[in-house]
Amino acid sequence: MMSTNQLKYGFLYISLLITSFFHAQNTANGKITDAKNNKEISGVDIFINDNNTPALTTTSGNFSIQSDSIIYKLKFQKKNYALESVDISAVKNSNLLVKLSSEKVSSIEEVVIHNEKTKFKNKKENPAYRIMQEVWKRKRNNGLDKFDTYTYKEYEKIQFDANNLDSAFMNRKIFNKLDFIFDYADSTARGKMALPIFLNESIYNHFGENKPNKKTKKLLVAQKTSGFQDNQVIAITAKNLYRDINIYDNTLNYFDIGFPSPVGTDGFSTYDYNLTDTVSIRGEQAYKIRYQPRRTEVLAFQGYLYIDTDSYAVLEATLKSTNKINVNFINAISTELEYDNPDDETFLPKKYVTEIEMTPFSKKKSAKSIIAKRSVDYSDYDFNKPLADSLFTRRKEEYDDRFVDKDDAFWVTARPDSLSKQEKGVYEMLDKLQQTPKFNRILKLTETLASRYYNVTKGIDLGPITSVYGKNDVEGDRIRLGARTYFGQNDPWRIEFYNAYGFKDQQFKYGVEGRYMFNRVNRFMIGGGTKRDITQLGVQLTTEDGILSRSFASSTVFARGENASLSSVNQTSFFTSIEPWKNFQVRVDGTMQSIKSANPSGFSLMYYRNGDLRKTTIDSHVTVSLIARPGATFSQTGVDRYEHGTLAPTIVLKYTRGIDGLFNADFNYNKLQFMFYKPVLLGSWGKTFLNFEAGKNFDTVPLALQNIIPGNQSYGIVPNTFAQLNYYEFVADTYSTLHIEHHFNGKILSFIPLIKKLKLREVAFIRGAYGSLSDASKNINVENLKYSAPDQQIYYEYGFGIENIGFGNIRIFRVDFNWRGNYLDRPDASKFGIKAGFQFGF
Fold first, then answer.
1. Backbone angle region of 66, left / alpha / beta, with phi > 0 → left and psi within -120 to 50 → alpha
2. 3-state DSSP call for residue 117?
3. SS3 832
4. φ, ψ dihedrals at 605, nearest 5°
5. At 585, is the pLDDT very low, low, confident or very high (cuts 50, 70, 90)?
6. 343 DSSP 8-state letter
7. Buried b / exposed e across 522-542, counting CB within 10 Å, b at 16+?
8. Span of the secretion signal (predicted)?
């Protein structure tokens, strides 16, 4: 399974590849009134930029205009009125208020957009406050929860546009033999060009039942992708950018970062509101309320709310980020929402459009970047019709690659709106690109950086490239070369292996693992493998069972103190797993292993058994794992699948049974372990990560099989470890640990003059561990006096970190300052430490 971190790596590399692309502003809308009496004016000719031919003649006071080229200026002309001109930008293009004057003033070059904030002594004097109070009293819920059953259709379109391409850019050497792509670009009045580079269309049917049991089903009916359709990382990253939002929630989720909602009940703590007008929205009279953040340094939006004057329902809303948005790789976000309101208590989504302007380097508006635009249309709502139970069961056809194949005639009738000229050109252009060797080489480089594997021939990848070099006290410099089979993103089987060599111990190591999936629906899978390698035990409590799971031994190039506590492990494992229910996995592992110290002179794993002194632990055990990921979403259907970013929790319950005598194993034992992990959004205050683990060894086992409270002697940040603990400092039969880490997203530092310009973000954390170790477990080990558990009091650490360190839009460095809270009298106790690392996230 590709982790969220891997997707973040993928996003970074994709951004670096197509950083030269930038989206144009090609739409504008607003209202035209008489400057003297404020009455709406129709019959106005609207000219785009410096064109002499009107692009639109209005039939009412409202106007909406679109162009295939960038709009940077609009001119308004009507007989008996002076010519008015309005500059258009990415943040000033919608809900414009244009006032035409009957005075013949030829010197007027622009009009003033009346968006100024009215000053009130207190919010109770603000008419917008009274309106918002009525909205909160009538807070609506999604109407889908009201009906016994429901069905509806969803059409989703995701497009990446590369714009602002000038002649100097097009003449770069990288485009030699690729210059035909500019035939599909659109020239603009500013001498730039706009080029679509990715388009994905999807149609889903939604089914839901609220009574007697709550069930939902999202069925993919058809999907059409152009641009990188065979590149798993780019397609998944496109989908992974977006979250569904509810304007009535107090917190809106973008990139798993919480933004305060302007319709939330605590909106007045973040926003100023100003009632500017009453307008007609789809035949309904609505209050037009402008809102903007009280402080521009916070993560918040600005825009307009359109509130029904009778029912106080939200008919439409626009949300735009401020110019000072502090999100990595992001220059701007904008969302337009439309709702239907069937009654006084509920709403139904009608249309959502979200644009995200991305660039890894510069925050400047002139910087080249990409616009990722997602539009979703909801239609064909139907309620309280009987739905068969079989409709909610998973079917094999849903996981067939050919299940979504549809011809062009289907798409013509299925789309709510026809494709634009640019969008139609995407399919043709990318078909030609994929026949171009140079483009495929560029694409291959991107895929290599994002997936960490290099494809050498059909079906064979070398990697991961990030594991080629490592270093530790036992092996010294270490070289690792690996490979895997890879025929496509939905492979039902995979084989992976590696070889490694340590130049200090002059020993070869290896590992190989194979997996095969019989059924895509319930993901019934078997696998097995074997390895001989140097491993750092004691850095995870709820460990992964795979042969090729991370070993940690070669990941520490710089460390505090000497680390000789490495183990030499010979392991053979077999497993089977199945998902009887969605996002719930049952896995059974059988493992045979021998463990001994990789450095006997510096680290002892010797123990007594029946009075005999032994240096190697022989272990055979069976592990049953129950893994739940409620709410998680995945792409692809092969042995490896790729997770979309969500706030889904991870819940793991594991039982391990050691079997004495099986393959010469030394011990019978029983172990039970539990883990709970959950990210939680706390509104404008940021995001908290919770990680709780607990476990118990019910029998006496030697150090190699014990629970080690995870230490971290490296100078890097390792999640869910204790920064100031040495390896093997605490050993426990019974344990519980809790890690709480809160990211404030700059909430506090944004108040500090000068510092706030650096756009740094603050992190606070506290970690605790408690456990016990029996006398029998101490005495079985040769160095019995060396090991103890945190049983006198809860061991704890605390500290803070500074993240978002970097330049431009690349702010991926983090520094943590850690303090040890107690057990300070221990030999070699580290009371304070600084850790640093990279975070590839928004």
1. beta
2. coil
3. strand
4. -115, 15
5. very high
6. S
7. bbebebbbbbbbbbbbbbbbb
8. 1-24
User: Which DSSP helix (H) or strand (E) runs through 350?
Assistant: strand 346-358
* Number of CB atoms found within 10 A of residue 784's CB: 15
Mean pLDDT calculated for residue range 400-408? 71
Residues in the chain: 842
Task: Write the pLDDT tens digit of every residue in 508-557.
Answer: 999 999 999 999 889 999 999 999 999 888 888 888 777 777 666 554 44
pLDDT tens for each residue of 603-658? 889 999 888 899 999 999 999 999 999 988 877 778 988 777 788 999 999 999 99
Residue type, 752: I
Confidence of residue 227 (pLDDT cuts 50, 70, 90): low
CB 618 within 8 A of CB 701: no
Distances (CA, A) of 495 to 448, 529, 535, 548: 18, 9, 22, 11
Please, what is the angle between helix 232-240 and helix 4-17, to 10°?
A: 100
Provide the 10 A C-beta neighbour count for residue 405.
Answer: 11
Per-residue tokens: 370: 């990409």
pLDDT-above-90 percentage for the chain: 35
Which residue from 160, 154, 197 is spatially nearest to 415, judged by alpha carbons? 154
The pLDDT tens digits for 771-804 are 999 999 999 988 876 889 999 999 999 999 998 8
526, amino acid identity: I
In the structure encoding, which two tokens stand for residue 746, read together?
């700059």
Cα(89)–Cα(79) distance, rounded to whole angstroms? Answer: 27
Taken in order 224, 226, 227, 231, is the CA torsion positive or negative? positive
606/593 Cα distance (integer angstroms) = 16
Token pair belonging to 72: 């940077």
566 contact partners, CB below 8 Å, separation of at least 6: 472, 473, 474, 534, 535, 536, 553, 597, 598, 599, 603
- For the whole model, what pTM was predicted? 0.77
Q: How many Cβ atoms sit within 10 Å of the Cβ of residue 39?
A: 8
Q: Is residue 330 within 8 Å of residue 357, measured between CB atoms?
A: yes
Inter-helix orientation angle 4-17/437-451, to 10°: 150
User: pLDDT tens digit string along 282-309?
Assistant: 888 999 999 999 877 778 899 999 999 9
Sign of CA dihedral 422, 424, 427, 433: negative
Q: How far apart are CA 84 and CA 100, in angstroms?
A: 7
Q: What is the largest CA-CA distance in the chain?
A: 109
Identify the H or E element spanning 424.
helix 421-433
- CB proximity list for 784: less than 8 A, separation 6 or greater: 778
pLDDT (tens digit per residue) in 85-99: 888 876 677 888 999
Instruction: Name the residue among 387, 400, 63 with its Cα closest to residue 215.
Output: 387
Structure token pair of residue 247: 């304007």
Whether residue 623 contacts residue 654, with contact meaning beta carbons closer than 8 Å, is answered with: yes
Gap between the Cα atoms of 312 and 137, Å rounded: 9
- Residue 402: pLDDT band by 50, 70, 90 thresholds? low
pLDDT digits (tens, 9 = 90+) for 97-135: 999 887 543 333 333 334 455 566 566 778 888 899 888
CA distances (Å), 131 to each of 309, 310, 337, 565, 624, in order? 9, 11, 19, 66, 57
CA atoms within 13 A on the CB side of 534: 29
Give me the mean pLDDT over the 470-493 stretch: 89
156 and 376 in contact (C-beta within 8 Å)? yes
- In the 8-state DSSP scheme, what is residue 587? E
Pairing of strands 96-100, 27-34: parallel
Q: Alpha-carbon distance 448 to 462, whole Å? A: 9
> 743 Cβ partners below 8 Å, 6+ apart?
686, 687, 688, 689, 761, 762, 763, 803
Position 565 scores a pLDDT of 85
How many Cβ atoms from other residues are within 10 Å of residue 167's Cβ?
10
- Bridge-based pairing of strands 62-66 and 96-100 is unpaired
CB 36 within 8 A of CB 672: no
Position 794, amino acid = I
